[in-house]
TrEMBL record:
Protein name per the record: Glycosyltransferase family 2 protein
Highest taxon of the lineage: Bacteria
Domain Glycosyltransferase 2-like: 10-185
Keywords: Glycosyltransferase, Transferase
CDD domains: GT_2_like_c (cd04186)
Family note: Belongs to the glycosyltransferase 2 family.
InterPro entries per the UniProt record, alphabetical: Glyco_trans_2-like, Nucleotide-diphossugar_trans
Length: 331
């Protein structure tokens, strides 16, 4: 099957994001000719739906009954979306001319391809990569994610160093293309996550089944990042630490106990660092993340038993060691 733009469903998840829709929908409409655009609303209370119905009556609206976060929100919204290719797009993303053509080229070139991510640049600092996914993601032995173009807080300037088309381990949920049948065969996102890192879990599950995820530098989008939950919010720290543990425990191939014990040590050091820099609420977030992980351990282990495992998922043993102890700041 040869895909074209009419085979793409662009699905934007919205929760009280009327101002973001006003700002970013125009670029999506202008540069996505023939694609089908949906807004999946997570029970907004800010007049988002009324705005869409008035200003953009041709956009299809999916109204979720509750705010189930990113994971449940998309799972519910995509049940009846039938286009062969799904683009899960954050509401704070500006797209550019020909952004879909490069994505279609990759899917048409490689029939085994499951997931594709474009180049993610910072909307407010446009010469630099954006934190959420940059130029494609990888993961270390202990489940810590990192990106080409972003290691922890160090963001690289885009000077063309990642203008390629290459296989990656995970794609950013900020702009996430996936074949519809594969998304549904994987059971969608794990709703226990609520938000953050559910796309990494999905990509890991896809990897374990032999599917390929790819980055293409020929498609460029600009992402604000943190528009719905800022990095300064301790809840984001809690979700990132907890969901990272969920993902590791579900999908790693072997020696789970040893890897979780190592994570306890490394996360403990991260928590102490938060105390040292006088951020006690973030320290508590790390503690709460581990408490929630152990409270949900029965569910996680049941999931682990059901999922296929595959070795050689990591390229580097410890990104923490490489970054903080060896001083490596770029991919």
């Amino acid at each position: 099957m040869k895909y074209n733009t009419t085979d793409i469903a662009i699905v934007i998840l919205n929760w009280n994001g009327k101002l973001l829709l006003e700002k970013f929908l125009p670029s999506i409409i202008n540069f996505s000719e023939d694609a089908n655009i949906y807004v999946a609303d997570n029970a907004s209370t800010d007049n988002s739906v009324a705005f869409l119905q008035t200003v953009y009556p041709n956009i299809q609206i999916i109204q979720n009954p509750i705010n189930g976060g990113y994971a449940k929100g998309y799972n519910e919204a995509l049940k009846d979306v039938s286009e062969p290719l799904l683009c899960l797009l954050n509401s704070d993303v500006e797209v550019t001319d020909n952004w879909l053509e490069a994505i279609l080229f990759e899917f048409n070139k490689d029939k085994t391809l499951a997931i594709v991510q474009p180049k993610l640049l910072d909307f407010n600092n446009r010469q630099y990569f954006e934190y959420a996914g940059a130029a494609g993601g990888f993961i270390d032995k202990y489940g810590y994610p990192y990106c080409r173009g972003r290691l922890f807080k160090h963001i690289e300037k885009d000077i063309g160093q990642y203008d390629d088309n290459t296989d990656i381990f995970w794609a950013s949920g900020a702009c996430f293309f996936i074949k519809n049948k594969i998304f549904k065969s994987l059971g969608g996102f794990d709703e226990a996550y609520f938000a953050h890192m559910e796309e990494i879990d999905l990509c890991w599950r896809a990897f374990n089944l032999g599917y390929t995820t790819r980055f293409t530098g020929n498609s460029v989008v600009y992402h604000v990042g943190g528009a719905t939950l800022k990095n300064t919010n301790p809840k984001k720290t809690y979700l990132n630490f907890r969901n990272s543990l969920f993902t590791l425990a579900k999908n790693t191939d072997k020696n789970l106990v040893g890897r979780i014990l190592t994570r306890m040590l490394l996360d403990g050091l991260a928590g102490l660092r938060f105390l040292f820099i006088l951020k006690p609420l973030f320290f508590l977030s790390v503690l709460k993340a581990h408490a929630s992980f152990y409270a949900n351990l029965s569910y996680i282990l049941k999931q682990r038993q059901l999922l296929k495992k595959r070795s050689n998922y990591f390229q580097i043993k410890s990104i923490v060691w490489s970054y903080f102890f060896l001083g490596k700041k770029t991919f």
